[in-house]
Amino acid sequence: MNKRQLQEVDRTGRSVLKFHILGAAQSVTGSLFLYELFEKGKVTRFLVDAGLTVENPQADYRKRLPTGVNPADVDFVILSHAHVDHCGYLPKLIKDGFKGKVYVTPATYDLMTVILPDSGYLQEEQAKARLNRHNRQRLAARAELEGAAGDAPPKGDRNGKSPRGKNQSAGRKKVGGKQAVGAVGKAGKGAVQATAAEATAAETTANESWRFQPLYTQEQAVESLKYCHSVNYHERFAVTDTIAFTFTDAGHILGAAVVNLEIGKGSQKRTFCFTGNVGRPNMPLLRDLEPVEQADYLMLEATYGDRLHQKRDRLDALETMLLQAYERAKPRHPRFGCGVIVIPAFAVGRAQTILNDLRILMESGRMPTLPVYVDGRMTNKATDVHRKHVGILNAETQQVFAEGRDPYTTPKQYLVTEYPDSAALRRVHEEPCIIVGSSGMAAGGRIVDHLAYWLPHKQNTVMFVGFQGTGTLGQSIVRTRGERPDSVTACPDCAKTVRIKGKDVRVGATVEFLPDYSAHADYGDQLGWLRKFKRRPKQTFIVHGDDGALEGLKGHIESALNWKNVVIPHAKQVFEL
Questions:
Q1: The domain 3-122+215-308+520-576: what is its CATH number?
Q2: Rounded to the nearest 10 degrees, how much is the dihedral formed by the CA atoms of 423, 426, 431, 435?
Q3: Coil, helix or strand at residue 300
């Protein structure tokens, strides 16, 4: 606000609330939203969510806050949940000067102790990889220039001799030093070019040094956890005398919350409901998304804004696929042994759900008891966090714990934490087995090595259990278009080979796709939740989605609910509420 506007606030006593869209606008990731409350004699700034921009990591290196606002100017942060595109920017914010408190649910905090250090480690590794690649390119370019300079023969006959023979040499002696300098100048032209190119490369490296530095380190990620303050669901927490919030269950992942804000007081009070990401009804492990009855302003996610999930029994579909995979894997190949069922699954939420369902099918006798290898230190740590927070799980899961059983442990389960043990799984197996590992989209991690090893062989099965983002290895394998099928084994455009770590890998294994495990509500789920509002909001913002999903959800809300003022904001847009 300018000086005149601030003077008007002081004179009238009326507060002004500005809302800045700084991330996840017309894109899926990078959740970051700034609120500025101008009151008489003071201004309070706070963020809801601080997530990494997964689609465009370079954006996180640039200034994401508005002009004139720095991290040190932000008073506090509220995080909706522990996914990296909602919390992963926090260490960078603190690194740049933020000193306030960060409010999260207890389970979100515990998951952040797993996720943020891992994110810091990946930032460091990616920075090293960029620098190594850059140095290799520089060396290759210099070698090419030097080679070009050294290979160029002097002008002459076919044997490289001067047509003037001895006279040319005499001519050089006759003119003395000037001729010698000229000769050296021509001979050294390539070297001069190489030196100039190297100087230009060095200058480029200096100007783009940010590319070779991690956004933050593992140590800085651990340090950022000290700023967190836990707030339970349904506990109204007053941050200041004019700003308070309440977390309600979002049903998305463990600890995920809808953030219900109260900003201002008296007649100038505004309420704002920020959903973060919201889950589907009747999902395993978690409680359902809680209803919210009213809010002046509402912000919705639109990941599945133009789609409906398949309506069927999830366990039946999983059972069918696993039994078919078992039959393929059972015959022992003389060279490769029995087949393997590889399940890429996100370390937080998806892996625990899959393990729970595998346990149910095996304990009930609906499928054979197979060895299950849970591969990944992060996955196993996240499972321990789920065990810690039994009280916020659904009644069915709480009952399993009450009976002294562990919902995340199958009858024949092995935990794999160290990489050598993970590599040792790529061997001849004497019986069919299952490997569960992250990431869910095969975008990195040990699962990539497993896929490179197991994909070529027809007795193996790769089972994807959720959305596969554009550009990921998972998406390149599944290659779904339009309505996602139950299985892509026979789809006409499925990949025959995929590129993994610079090599072409043949896809001989059966590839299955089971979208039933998505943790995002579809537009039908969202409309059902919105119908519980007792009055429609003054304004509804839609973020976290691609263009089709954003427009789809907007259209469904307008046509089904007759809500007005539904907005798809663009990046850096500012609203006065």
A1: 3.60.15.10
A2: 60
A3: strand
User: Which amino acid, residue 171?
Assistant: G
Number of residues written out for the chain: 577
CA pair distance 241, 264, nearest whole angstrom: 8
CB atoms under 10 Å from CB of 267, counted, come to 6
- Strand, helix or coil for residue 462: strand
Residues 6+ apart with CB under 8 A from 511: 461, 462, 463, 464, 477, 478, 487, 488, 489, 494
pTM: 0.84
Q: Classify strands 270-274 and 510-513 as parallel, antiparallel or unpaired.
A: unpaired
What does each C-alpha distance from 265 to 260, 268, 332, 341, 555 come to in angstroms? 15, 5, 72, 57, 34
Please list the pLDDT of the chain residue by residue as tens digits (577 residues): 677 777 677 767 788 899 999 999 988 889 999 999 988 888 999 999 999 998 788 889 899 999 999 999 999 999 999 999 999 999 999 999 999 999 999 999 999 999 999 999 888 888 888 888 888 888 888 887 877 766 655 555 544 444 444 444 444 444 444 444 444 444 455 555 555 555 555 555 555 666 788 999 999 999 999 999 999 999 999 999 999 999 999 999 999 999 999 999 888 899 999 999 999 999 899 999 999 999 999 999 999 899 888 888 899 999 999 999 999 999 999 888 999 999 999 899 999 999 999 999 999 999 999 999 999 999 999 999 999 999 999 999 999 999 999 999 999 999 999 999 999 999 999 999 999 998 877 777 888 899 999 999 999 999 988 777 667 777 778 864 444 444 444 455 667 888 888 888 898 899 888 888 888 999 999 999 999 999 999 999 999 988 899 999 999 999 999 999 999 999 999 999 9
Query: Cα dihedral sign for 33, 263, 301, 398?
Result: positive
Distance of CA 348 to CAs 48, 80, 438, Å? 21, 15, 9
Identify any residues that bridge with 333 across adjacent strands, giving them in sequence order. 337
* Full 3-state SS string of 96-138: CCCCCEEEECHHHHHHHHHHHHHHHHHHHHHHHHHHHHHHHHH
The reply to whether domains 3-122+215-308+520-576 and 314-517 share a CATH topology is no
**111-125 core/surface letters (b: 16 or more CB in 10 A; e: else):** bbbbbbbbbbbbbbe
User: Do 423 and 473 meet the contact criterion of CB atoms below 8 Å apart?
Assistant: no
> By CB neighbour count within 10 A (0-12 exposed, 13-18 middle, 19+ buried), where does 374 fall?
buried
Which uninterrupted H or E stretch holds 47? Answer: strand 42-50
Q: Give the amino acid at 246.
A: T
Identify whether the C-beta of residue 329 lies closer than 8 Å to the C-beta of residue 341: yes
Domain boundaries, the chain: 3-122+215-308+520-576, 314-517
Q: Where does 314-517 sit in CATH, by number?
A: 3.40.50.10890
Q: Is residue 21 classed as helix, strand or coil in its secondary structure? A: strand
What is the C-alpha to C-alpha distance for residues 365 and 505, in angstroms, rounded to an integer?
A: 36
Structure token digits, residue 457: 């062989």
